[in-house]
Amino acid sequence: MDDILEILSNDSRISPEEISKLTGKSVEEIKKAIKKYEKNGIIVKYKTIINHDLARDAGSFVRALIEVSVSPQKDVGFEYIAERIYSFPEVTSCYLVSGTYDLLVVVEGENIQTVSNFISSKLSPMENVRSTATHFLLKKYKEDGQILKNTSSGKRLNISY
């Protein structure tokens, strides 16, 4: 990966002046490269990683990974069904994957019932969706390369007999 892109992927708030010092390139060269990356769609968006466990009530936010098996359509393959799925506002990510299922879909909702309703009323009944398997995320330890601060002591209760 280009050194400018690698630096930005670790800290999108770093200034062109700081990147210049790290790479030995001129500030103008850095600014020109960044503008080109943005124009060509290489840099799609600048993102902040939020530890949702610390930012809000743990009970007010649910994320699920959904394995989806689909029947690809003639002449469009998986593209058509993937586009229909990722168009739903509940879907935050959608990936074509290898293995026993075809798509991995990340869904967010206010609670388990909201996510379950999305699956049962919108996703599962879709034409060409053969099956789904849902995995609710219970705790995040690391996201996008960043270790998230633990919100609990992690101590287990003593068990006595």
Give a brief outline of the structure:
The protein is 33% helix and 21% strand. With 161 residues, the protein is of the alpha+beta class. The strands form 2 sheets. Strands 2-3-1-4 form a 4-stranded antiparallel beta sheet. A two-stranded antiparallel sheet has the order 5-6.
- Give the topology string: H per helix, E per strand: HHHHEHEEHEEE
Beta-strand content estimate: 15-25%
Helix-and-strand structural type: alpha+beta
Assembly state: single chain
Indicate how many domains the architecture comprises. Answer: 2
Give a count of the beta strands, DSSP E runs of length 2 or more: 6
Arrangement of strands in the largest sheet = 2-3-1-4
Work out the radius of gyration: 21 Å
CATH superfamily of the largest domain: Lrp/AsnC effector binding domain/regulation of amino acid metabolism (RAM) domain
- Give the overall shape, derived from the CA principal axes: flat
What does this structure look like?
The protein is α+β, with helices and mostly antiparallel strands and 161 residues long. It has two domains: 3-39; 58-139, Alpha-Beta Plaits (2-Layer Sandwich), CATH 3.30.70.920. The protein has six helices and six strands. A four-stranded antiparallel beta sheet has the order 2-3-1-4. It has a two-stranded antiparallel ribbon with strand order 5-6. Helix 2 (16-23) crosses helix 3 (27-39). 11% of the residues are buried.
